[in-house]
Amino acid sequence: MFNIDKFNEIREKLEKYNNTGKIVAISKNHPVESVFEAINQGVYIFGENRVQEAKTKFVKIKENNPKIELHLTGPLQSNKVKDALLLFDVFHTIDREKIAKELSKHQQLLINKKFFVQINTGREKTKSGIFPEDTKDFLFFLKNEISLPIQGLMCIPPIEDDPKYHFNQLQNLAKKNSLDKLSIGMSGDYTDALPFRPTYIRLGTILFGKRN
Ligand SMILES: *Cc1c(COP(=O)(O)O)cnc(C)c1O
Asked: Backbone phi, then psi, for 85, in 5-degree steps?
Protein backbone atom coordinates (compact mmCIF):
# COMPACT_ATOMS: atom_id res chain seq x y z
CA MET A 1 0.00 0.00 0.00
CA PHE A 2 1.29 3.45 -0.87
CA ASN A 3 -0.40 6.68 0.21
CA ILE A 4 0.03 9.04 -2.75
CA ASP A 5 -2.20 11.74 -1.21
CA LYS A 6 0.02 11.93 1.85
CA PHE A 7 3.09 11.96 -0.40
CA ASN A 8 1.76 14.89 -2.42
CA GLU A 9 0.65 16.77 0.67
CA ILE A 10 4.09 16.47 2.31
CA ARG A 11 5.88 17.21 -0.97
CA GLU A 12 4.01 20.50 -1.29
CA LYS A 13 4.95 21.44 2.26
CA LEU A 14 8.59 20.53 1.67
CA GLU A 15 8.75 22.56 -1.53
CA LYS A 16 7.53 25.63 0.33
CA TYR A 17 10.63 25.44 2.52
CA ASN A 18 13.08 24.16 -0.09
CA ASN A 19 11.93 24.06 -3.68
CA THR A 20 14.63 21.53 -4.55
CA GLY A 21 13.92 19.31 -1.52
CA LYS A 22 12.88 15.73 -2.20
CA ILE A 23 11.07 12.94 -0.37
CA VAL A 24 12.89 9.61 -0.23
CA ALA A 25 10.19 6.92 -0.02
CA ILE A 26 11.66 4.35 2.37
CA SER A 27 10.34 0.99 1.15
CA LYS A 28 12.35 -1.28 3.48
CA ASN A 29 10.38 -4.30 4.75
CA HIS A 30 7.60 -3.53 2.30
CA PRO A 31 6.83 -5.76 -0.67
CA VAL A 32 7.87 -4.83 -4.19
CA GLU A 33 4.16 -4.48 -5.07
CA SER A 34 4.02 -1.38 -2.87
CA VAL A 35 7.01 0.01 -4.75
CA PHE A 36 5.24 -0.60 -8.09
CA GLU A 37 2.18 1.16 -6.75
CA ALA A 38 4.28 4.20 -5.90
CA ILE A 39 6.11 4.16 -9.25
CA ASN A 40 2.80 4.02 -11.10
CA GLN A 41 1.86 7.22 -9.33
CA GLY A 42 5.01 9.02 -10.34
CA VAL A 43 7.28 8.42 -7.35
CA TYR A 44 10.88 7.74 -8.42
CA ILE A 45 13.10 8.21 -5.33
CA PHE A 46 13.25 5.23 -2.98
CA GLY A 47 15.32 4.28 0.04
CA GLU A 48 16.33 0.90 1.41
CA ASN A 49 18.39 -0.03 4.48
CA ARG A 50 19.89 -3.33 3.32
CA VAL A 51 21.86 -4.11 0.20
CA GLN A 52 20.47 -7.64 -0.16
CA GLU A 53 16.82 -6.62 0.18
CA ALA A 54 17.36 -3.74 -2.21
CA LYS A 55 18.94 -6.06 -4.78
CA THR A 56 15.97 -8.41 -4.67
CA LYS A 57 13.49 -5.59 -5.12
CA PHE A 58 15.23 -3.00 -7.28
CA VAL A 59 17.64 -4.60 -9.80
CA LYS A 60 14.83 -5.29 -12.32
CA ILE A 61 13.01 -2.07 -11.53
CA LYS A 62 16.13 -0.02 -12.21
CA GLU A 63 16.82 -1.87 -15.47
CA ASN A 64 13.34 -1.01 -16.69
CA ASN A 65 13.14 2.53 -15.28
CA PRO A 66 16.39 4.49 -15.66
CA LYS A 67 14.78 7.40 -13.84
CA ILE A 68 14.51 5.52 -10.54
CA GLU A 69 16.93 6.83 -7.92
CA LEU A 70 17.82 4.49 -5.06
CA HIS A 71 19.15 5.70 -1.70
CA LEU A 72 20.95 3.64 0.92
CA THR A 73 19.74 4.76 4.35
CA GLY A 74 21.06 1.90 6.46
CA PRO A 75 24.61 1.09 7.57
CA LEU A 76 27.03 -0.09 4.89
CA GLN A 77 29.38 -3.02 5.48
CA SER A 78 32.78 -3.22 3.78
CA ASN A 79 32.03 -6.55 2.10
CA LYS A 80 28.86 -5.06 0.51
CA VAL A 81 30.45 -1.89 -0.83
CA LYS A 82 30.81 -3.01 -4.45
CA ASP A 83 27.27 -4.44 -4.62
CA ALA A 84 25.97 -1.25 -3.08
CA LEU A 85 27.77 0.91 -5.63
CA LEU A 86 26.29 -1.14 -8.45
CA LEU A 87 22.76 -0.47 -7.20
CA PHE A 88 22.47 2.71 -5.13
CA ASP A 89 22.76 6.32 -6.32
CA VAL A 90 22.85 8.19 -3.02
CA PHE A 91 24.47 7.06 0.25
CA HIS A 92 23.21 8.64 3.50
CA THR A 93 25.31 6.77 6.05
CA ILE A 94 29.03 7.28 5.44
CA ASP A 95 30.31 6.94 8.98
CA ARG A 96 33.85 5.55 9.14
CA GLU A 97 37.22 5.59 7.43
CA LYS A 98 37.15 1.90 6.64
CA ILE A 99 34.01 2.25 4.51
CA ALA A 100 35.31 5.36 2.81
CA LYS A 101 38.56 3.60 1.89
CA GLU A 102 36.61 0.65 0.54
CA LEU A 103 34.46 2.98 -1.58
CA SER A 104 37.52 4.74 -2.94
CA LYS A 105 38.82 1.46 -4.38
CA HIS A 106 36.03 1.64 -6.94
CA GLN A 107 36.68 5.02 -8.51
CA GLN A 108 34.96 4.13 -11.79
CA LEU A 109 31.74 3.31 -9.90
CA LEU A 110 31.76 6.57 -7.95
CA ILE A 111 30.83 8.73 -10.93
CA ASN A 112 27.45 10.42 -10.37
CA LYS A 113 27.10 9.00 -6.85
CA LYS A 114 26.20 11.25 -3.94
CA PHE A 115 27.37 10.82 -0.36
CA PHE A 116 26.18 12.11 3.00
CA VAL A 117 28.07 11.74 6.26
CA GLN A 118 25.97 10.42 9.15
CA ILE A 119 26.48 12.35 12.38
CA ASN A 120 25.60 10.85 15.75
CA THR A 121 24.32 14.15 17.13
CA GLY A 122 22.95 12.42 20.24
CA ARG A 123 26.27 10.62 20.85
CA GLU A 124 24.28 7.41 21.35
CA LYS A 125 26.20 4.16 21.86
CA THR A 126 23.63 2.23 19.86
CA LYS A 127 23.72 4.50 16.81
CA SER A 128 26.24 4.74 14.06
CA GLY A 129 27.64 8.03 12.89
CA ILE A 130 30.56 10.34 13.49
CA PHE A 131 30.54 12.30 16.75
CA PRO A 132 29.94 16.00 16.09
CA GLU A 133 33.40 17.00 17.30
CA ASP A 134 35.03 14.60 14.81
CA THR A 135 33.14 15.90 11.78
CA LYS A 136 35.79 18.32 10.60
CA ASP A 137 38.62 15.76 10.67
CA PHE A 138 36.50 13.11 8.99
CA LEU A 139 35.48 15.47 6.20
CA PHE A 140 39.11 16.51 5.78
CA PHE A 141 40.10 12.86 5.47
CA LEU A 142 37.37 12.17 2.90
CA LYS A 143 38.29 15.16 0.82
CA ASN A 144 42.05 15.02 0.93
CA GLU A 145 42.93 11.38 1.34
CA ILE A 146 40.04 9.63 -0.37
CA SER A 147 38.67 12.32 -2.74
CA LEU A 148 35.12 11.25 -1.89
CA PRO A 149 32.79 14.14 -2.74
CA ILE A 150 30.45 14.79 0.19
CA GLN A 151 27.13 16.54 -0.40
CA GLY A 152 25.95 17.05 3.12
CA LEU A 153 25.13 15.64 6.54
CA MET A 154 22.51 13.24 7.88
CA CYS A 155 21.30 12.50 11.41
CA ILE A 156 18.70 10.49 13.29
CA PRO A 157 17.76 12.24 16.56
CA PRO A 158 17.42 10.13 19.73
CA ILE A 159 13.73 9.27 20.16
CA GLU A 160 13.50 10.84 23.61
CA ASP A 161 14.89 14.24 22.54
CA ASP A 162 13.42 17.26 20.82
CA PRO A 163 14.44 16.63 17.20
CA LYS A 164 14.77 20.38 16.53
CA TYR A 165 17.81 20.53 18.81
CA HIS A 166 19.55 17.87 16.71
CA PHE A 167 18.53 19.31 13.35
CA ASN A 168 19.84 22.68 14.46
CA GLN A 169 23.12 21.13 15.58
CA LEU A 170 23.44 19.35 12.23
CA GLN A 171 22.69 22.52 10.29
CA ASN A 172 25.37 24.42 12.23
CA LEU A 173 27.90 21.66 11.65
CA ALA A 174 27.12 21.65 7.94
CA LYS A 175 27.52 25.43 7.69
CA LYS A 176 30.81 25.36 9.58
CA ASN A 177 32.10 22.82 7.11
CA SER A 178 30.77 24.62 4.02
CA LEU A 179 28.13 22.01 3.27
CA ASP A 180 24.56 23.02 2.55
CA LYS A 181 22.62 19.79 2.14
CA LEU A 182 20.80 18.02 4.98
CA SER A 183 19.16 14.59 5.10
CA ILE A 184 16.77 14.96 8.04
CA GLY A 185 13.22 14.09 8.97
CA MET A 186 11.37 10.77 9.19
CA SER A 187 7.67 9.98 9.61
CA GLY A 188 7.68 11.03 13.26
CA ASP A 189 9.68 14.24 13.03
CA TYR A 190 9.58 15.56 9.47
CA THR A 191 7.41 18.55 10.46
CA ASP A 192 10.23 19.65 12.76
CA ALA A 193 12.77 19.08 9.98
CA LEU A 194 11.03 21.22 7.33
CA PRO A 195 12.08 24.66 8.68
CA PHE A 196 15.72 23.53 8.29
CA ARG A 197 15.13 23.30 4.53
CA PRO A 198 16.10 19.65 4.10
CA THR A 199 17.47 18.38 0.79
CA TYR A 200 16.00 14.96 1.61
CA ILE A 201 13.37 13.82 4.06
CA ARG A 202 13.21 10.05 4.50
CA LEU A 203 9.64 8.78 4.91
CA GLY A 204 8.63 5.17 5.44
CA THR A 205 5.69 4.46 7.73
CA ILE A 206 3.69 7.55 6.85
CA LEU A 207 3.71 6.58 3.15
CA PHE A 208 3.74 2.77 3.14
CA GLY A 209 2.08 1.97 6.48
CA LYS A 210 3.52 -0.06 9.34
CA ARG A 211 6.45 -2.34 8.55
CA ASN A 212 6.19 -6.11 9.09
C1 LIG B 1 13.58 3.30 8.49
C2 LIG B 1 14.26 4.60 8.28
C3 LIG B 1 13.53 5.73 7.86
C4 LIG B 1 12.01 5.74 7.71
O5 LIG B 1 11.44 5.67 8.97
P6 LIG B 1 9.90 6.00 9.22
O7 LIG B 1 9.83 6.36 10.66
O8 LIG B 1 9.17 4.74 8.92
O9 LIG B 1 9.52 7.11 8.33
C10 LIG B 1 14.24 6.90 7.60
N11 LIG B 1 15.57 6.96 7.76
C12 LIG B 1 16.29 5.90 8.16
C13 LIG B 1 17.76 6.05 8.32
C14 LIG B 1 15.67 4.70 8.45
O15 LIG B 1 16.39 3.66 8.89
From this structure: -70, -30
Nearest CA to ligand 1 atom 6: 204
Please list every protein residue whose CB sits less than 6 Å from any atom of ligand 1: 26, 28, 49, 73-74, 156, 186-188, 202-206
| Residue nearest to ligand 1 atom 11, measured at CA | 202
User: Residue 167: how many CB atoms within 10 A of its CB?
Assistant: 23
Rounded to 5 degrees, what angle do the CA atoms 69, 74, 75 make?
Answer: 125
- pTM given for the model: 0.97
- Number of Cβ within 10 Å of residue 7's Cβ equals 19
pLDDT category, 147, cuts 50, 70, 90? confident
Count other C-beta atoms under 10 Å from residue 107's C-beta.
10
Residue range 87-118, pLDDT digits in tens: 999 999 999 999 999 999 999 999 999 999 99
Give the fold, CATH level 3, of 4-208.
Answer: TIM Barrel (3.20.20)
CA distance 51 to 34: 18
